[in-house]
Design a protein that fits this description.
Blueprint lengths: L6 H9 L3 E3 L13 E3 L1 E8 L11 H8 L2 E4 L4 E3 L4 E11 L5 E6 L1 H4 L3 E7 L7 E2 L4 E10 L4 E3 L6 E6 L7 H10 L3 E2 L10 E2 L2 E7 L4 E6 L6 E2 L8 H4 E5 L5 E4 L5 E9 L5 E7 L13 E3 L14 E7 L6 E4 L3 E9 L31
Parallel strand pairs: 11-17
Antiparallel strand pairs: 1-6, 2-12, 3-4, 3-6, 5-11, 6-10, 7-9, 7-12, 8-10, 13-20, 14-15, 15-20, 15-25, 16-18, 16-20, 19-24, 20-23, 21-22, 21-25
Length: 364
């Protein structure tokens, strides 16, 4: 049966030796439908972003192009706008038919830290081919702030699947008939919204704090200092505009949230996709995973949770307006309901978020 693997199957991959680590894999790394990956000690400063060609190892690139090595046994500072390659502690020996797909963790994306997985002989970022056996490397590019990391820190995550079972428009429409998938901020069901195999989400800038804009800071964000950073040192709050319109500057980084509250039933996972850029140059900078139970609870008692958007206008300054389409939610079927749900007996930082919530590293 095609689909994404739930937590109990990820735990079985670990027990069977298909996922190993140079450190001990913590049970907390296993999420309802994903696995948090962790840094090893071995890191390198690189002159730019690059990927291996077919038949080429990542270590071949490091031998040829790296500037200097970094030992992350002790905390090290990764400097803004520089490129780093860091060996992940986890190593894969995937069974035939099982592949993986990696993505930023939400806390990482919300500080504008770009991560992409590389593996040997595969000229694709974040996509780990079925049956892959070997090391995993993480390309890390801090875009807005310096960051302090050490071995054991988790910057990204991966799902495992035996054929992704993404719902098309018809499948998504049928699922929405059986249970609400979108709510408005008042808990009312939002009908429709299905477009090109995803649920359309729109921008909400009519909140007292419409969003946040990154500001320059001389201090790094320390991944070990959860809830200890002063948000005013790193972000400027954006007040609700009286005109319903905001001006976004090219190259700046912003945090916003969606008007709609999304709900992820227990036997599904969701990936946030940038909205079709033919409708405008406003896009979510980082896509992201939403585990089963996000905005759902144990039995559907939660009436959705807004999605937080990490946005950077690349090509031009932008004018954006309230309820402007910004992203789509793509639903995919799990091969079975997971043994645990997001926000239900699982440590979660964003289950109760309402509006443009900053990363877990900041004091609330």
């Amino acid at each position: 049966m095609p689909g994404t693997l739930p937590s109990q199957d990820i735990e079985k991959l670990i027990a069977d030796g298909c996922i190993t680590s140079s450190a001990q894999i913590s049970p907390l790394q296993v999420q309802p439908s994903s696995l948090d990956l962790t840094l090893s000690r071995r890191a390198f400063s690189m002159p730019g972003s690059l990927m291996p060609l077919q038949g080429e190892r990542v270590t071949d690139l490091i031998e040829r192009y790296s500037r200097y090595p970094i030992d992350l046994k002790e905390p090290g500072v990764l400097v803004r706008d520089n490129v780093y390659l860091i060996l992940l502690a986890e190593r894969l020996r995937l069974p035939e038919g099982v592949a993986a797909y990696a993505n930023n963790k939400s806390s990482t994306g919300r500080i504008d830290l770009q991560t992409r997985v590389l593996c040997d002989g595969n000229p694709r970022y974040d996509k780990i081919p079925e049956g892959y056996s070997g090391e995993l490397w993480l390309e890390v590019i801090p875009k807005s702030f310096d960051v302090k990391v050490r071995a054991g820190d988790s910057l990204n995550q991966t799902i495992f699947y035996q054929g992704r079972n993404l719902l098309d428009g018809d499948g998504l429409g049928k699922l929405a008939l059986g249970m609400p998938l979108l709510y408005d901020p008042h808990g009312n069901t939002v009908k429709g919204g299905v477009m090109d195999g995803g649920l359309l989400m729109t921008l909400d800038i009519e909140q007292p704090v419409a969003g946040f804009k990154a500001r320059k800071s001389i201090r790094p964000i320390d991944f070990a200092a959860i809830g200890q950073h002063d948000p005013k040192e790193f972000f400027e709050p954006i007040e609700r505009p009286s005109t319903g319109t905001l001006f976004l500057s090219q190259g700046d980084f912003y945090i916003f949230s969606t008007y709609e509250y999304v709900s992820v039933p227990p036997d599904y996972a969701v990936e946030m996709l940038p909205y079709d850029t033919s409708a405008g140059e406003f896009r979510a900078h980082y896509a992201g995973f939403f585990d089963p139970g996000f905005g759902f609870g144990e039995k559907g008692e939660v009436k959705g949770t807004p999605a937080v958007l990490e946005v950077r206008p690349y090509e031009d300054d932008l004018i954006v307006r309230h309820r402007q389409p910004v992203c789509k939610m793509a639903y995919e079927k799990l091969i079975a309901p997971p043994g645990k749900l997001y926000g239900v007996g699982v440590r979660s930082n964003y289950a109760a978020q309402r509006g443009p919530k900053l990363s877990k590293f900041f004091r609330q």
